[in-house]
Amino acid sequence: MTDSTIGFIGLGLIGGSIARAIKRRQPQVRIMAYMRTRARLEQAKADGIVDVILEGIGDQLSQCDLIFLCTPVEYNAQYLTAIRPYLKEGALITDVGSTKTSIHEEIARQGLEDRFVGGHPMAGSEKTGYENSSDHLLENAYYIVTPPVGADGSLPFEEQPENVRRILTVARIIGAIPMVLDYREHDRVVAAISHLPHLIASSLVNLVRDSDTAAGTMKRVAAGGFKDITRIASSSPEMWEQICMTNTLPIAEVLERYIASLNQVLDQIRGRDNEGIYKLFETSRDYRNSITERARGPLEPAYEFSVDVVDEVGSISTISVILAAKGISIKNIGINNNREHGEGALKIAFYDQESMEAAWKHLDKYKYEMFRV
Ligand SMILES: NC(=O)c1ccc[n+]([C@@H]2O[C@H](COP(=O)([O-])OP(=O)(O)OC[C@H]3O[C@@H](n4cnc5c(N)ncnc54)[C@H](O)[C@@H]3O)[C@@H](O)[C@H]2O)c1
Ligand SMILES: O=C(O)C(=O)C[C@]1(C(=O)O)C=C[C@@H](O)C=C1
């Protein structure tokens, strides 16, 4: 990597995770950071992640080869004006915002096209802050890179413009999978696979909140189905308000189609159209099952399956003992949080195909019920 000093404006979940991953893989890179909560910056320095704490937006920034904007999307765009006087010759700005058109429009307005390449790591969490960041959060996740003009994802790395290559390089260093995309296309795609799901999760939670009994029975008995589909309803309101306000048209378009599809479901339910409802679940199951859990897919296969167990003390150790007796090593074992297959599903991961198959065969003899995850 040619960029040896990297500045971060905002060092929360995403900024902190990128800084940690860079430090882990390229410890010689000098990291400078600014955020509003001074105590967290001091923590990051004590952790050895940040080398220099920036007191604000000022002269020190002119030491940076690359500047990451990692605050909520509208603030990222506002920071462009503030940091611009301190850009040294050749310095590049990038961001990690969940929407791209608004910041690219601001870049064009300020004539900064030669100084900016956008970015968006496709991983995250409902949790915020440096304290929840990790050096592996973005590993194996797609990292969308949006050039100001002429995005061409079909070009190999060597043929991409130099500024684009600089961001692709950082994405690779942190263990992510870079993908070049036009920023407008980016916003249409994420409206469907990220923004709409967040709106659905939050409106569903609010619907249940408003429909619950005085005794709160719905809240009390809410189980896997509700919890799985609503985890992201706990996300930051400040961040999501800004995401929605900077992607209104693509969100409105997909939301309209979603409402139409819900109306169709309503008609099918009211009309007792069992075939239509069956088809709904069948089609969604097939498509959902075709989505690989890991972005790398076949390059990094997961050797794992789940086992139905009675939820009682000792069930994990019984399985461990059975497998250990056959010399089969377990890479990981734990309760399957997805709970798609019942409360007592244990997920077991193995180091290779052979161990997984041997374990399957052996547990089958003990009449365990197993299924692929
Ligand atoms: N959370 C996710 O799942 C996720 C995933 C990919 C991209 N993103 C994008 O990454 C960016 C950061 O999100 P995050 O999840 O790290 O949020 P976060 O709340 O964990 O971190 C935001 C950081 O910005 C700082 N900040 C906020 N307002 C500021 C301001 N006005 N001036 C200076 N610093 C300020 C906060 O102190 C914090 O350090 C957002 O643009 C978001 O759209 C988020
Ligand atoms: O896993 C989560 O909690 C996320 O919401 C991550 C998620 C998403 O998948 O929608 C959220 C926002 C980002 O811009 C990218 C990823």
Give an overview in words.
The chain has helices at 13-25, 38-46, 73-83, 101-109, 162-173, 183-211, 217-221, 224-230, 237-245, 248-270, 274-289, 315-325, 353-365; strands at 5-9, 30-34, 52-53, 66-69, 92-95, 118-121, 142-146, 177-180, 304-308, 330-335, 345-350, 369-372. The chain is an alpha/beta fold. The protein has 3 domains: 5-181, NAD(P)-binding Rossmann-like Domain (Rossmann fold), CATH 3.40.50; 186-289, Orthogonal Bundle (6-phosphogluconate dehydrogenase C-terminal fold), CATH 1.10.3660.10; 302-372, ACT domain (Alpha-Beta Plaits), CATH 3.30.70.260. The strands form 3 sheets. Strands 3-2-1-4-5 form a 5-stranded parallel β-sheet, covered by helices on one side. Helix 1 links the parallel strand 1 (5-9) and strand 2. The longest helix has 29 residues, at 183-211. The chain starts with a strand and ends with a strand. The site of prephenic acid (PRE) has 8 residues, from loops.
| CATH architecture field of the largest domain | 3-Layer(aba) Sandwich
Bound molecules: nicotinamide-adenine-dinucleotide, prephenic acid
Helix-strand makeup class: alpha/beta
Regions with little confidence, pLDDT below 50 for 5+ residues: 296-300
Give the CA-based shape: globular
What is the assigned CATH homologous superfamily of the largest domain? Answer: NAD(P)-binding Rossmann-like Domain
The major sheet is characterized as: 5 strands, parallel
- The domain tally reads 3
Average pLDDT works out at: 93
What is the number of beta strands? 12
Could you estimate the helical fraction of the residues in percent?
40-55%
Number of helices: 13
Strand content of the residues, in percent? 5-15%
| Helix and strand run | EHEHEEHEHEEHEHHHHHHEHEEHE
- Would you tell me which CATH topology of the largest domain applies? Rossmann fold
- Terminal Cα span: 38 Å
**The first-level CATH class name of the largest domain:** Alpha Beta
